[in-house]
Specification:
- The chain has about 300 residues and is α/β, with parallel strands linked by helices.
- About 40% of the residues lie in helices and about 15% in strands.
- It contains 10 helices and 12 strands.
- Strands 2-1-3-4-5-6 form a 6-stranded parallel beta sheet, sandwiched between helices.
Length: about 300
């Protein structure tokens, strides 16, 4: 039995290979760890599960360095290749391995002639009947730019919901700013998963239609900001226009017409009674009216066109 699975891909929310590795390790009752954690291993055998064509030169150099550590410690390992491209690091791994699993027959064919036992394998379905949309007494929904998600407020929310003993689920969809990257979501999703554990579900990068669908299914939309909600934070108005109650954070520069308990909820003032179904419905209905009054396209166009030149 292997002691752990070592992966080149570790975030199941971003990578099919990472999800495969996570499911594989879970079903074997062992840990799945990243390449950087290899120095914490003191015994084998271990299984590398790798798709190295996606890695950078620095990542391959790190893997080579960690491989030398395993060799010096006489720790046995096997390989599971999800791709094989004849890379130098792939041959370096093969040299010291005991055996190789090929993820498909093309890989198996590419490994013909290598003086190692090669086993033709496969990758089972990553989506099972267990992966369905989970609903609870309180459905929360959040969408926005990955690099702008404010972890401290989500942690505050989780602590409040736990203290109130509320049955809830949190659905999260993220988008990317043109100056941001997938690393932002990798970091954020890992932090959110640690905070909310089994209660969080990541929905990927939803279209506008997808966002509206979940706004209609949720009781409370979540959007936190570095300082406070502003008049140009459009995600808030998208929720308000659907008649969905909003939980956010406000300060002295937030729109003056946004009032806790009237048309929004402020995380700093949140109480158990604010989360009752009837209260959230009332706030959502008022939010819809007020967003149309104070934050509509018609109103903005009138403001611009009526200015004296």
């Amino acid at each position: 039995m292997y002691k752990c699975v070592i992966s080149s891909h570790t975030n199941p929310n971003l990578s099919g290979v990472a999800r495969f590795n996570h499911i594989l390790a879970t079903n074997m009752g062992i840990q799945c760890i990243g390449i950087s954690d290899i120095k914490n291993i003191d015994t084998g055998p271990i299984l590398f599960s790798l798709k190295l064509r996606d890695t950078t030169g620095s990542e391959r150099s790190l893997l080579s360095e960690r491989l030398h550590y395993l060799v010096n410690k006489n720790i046995d390992y096997d390989l599971f290749f999800h791709t094989f491209d004849g890379l130098e690091i792939e041959y370096e791994l093969i040299e010291r391995c005991r055996m190789i699993y090929s993820g498909n027959s093309e890989i198996y064919h590419a490994l013909e002639g290598i003086d190692k036992e090669v086993v033709s394998a496969w990758c089972p379905a990553l989506i099972t009947g267990e992966h369905v949309l989970h609903e609870a007494s309180l459905n929360l929904f959040s969408f926005g730019m990955a690099h702008k998600l404010q972890i401290k407020y989500y942690k505050m929310l989780q602590e409040l919901l736990s203290d109130y003993n509320i049955d809830y689920t949190l659905w999260v969809s993220t988008a990317f700013h043109e100056k941001a990257n997938f690393g932002d979501f990798n970091s954020i999703s890992n932090q959110l998963s640690r905070i909310f554990r089994h209660r969080i579900q990541f929905l990927g990068f939803l279209s506008d239609d997808g966002v509206n669908y979940f706004l209609d299914k949720t009781q409370l939309f979540i959007a936190f900001f570095e300082k406070g909600v502003r008049a140009n934070n459009t995600s808030i108005f998208a929720a308000m226009n659907r008649g969905c109650a909003v939980l956010t954070n406000s300060d002295e520069y937030s729109p003056t017409w946004m009032k806790h308990g009237i048309n929004i909820l402020d995380i700093h003032m949140l109480q158990l009674e604010d989360l009752e179904t009837e209260v959230l419905q009332r706030i959502g209905a008022q939010a819809k009216k007020d967003a149309r009054k104070y934050a509509s396209w018609d109103g903005l166009i009138k403001l611009i066109c009526n200015q004296k030149r």
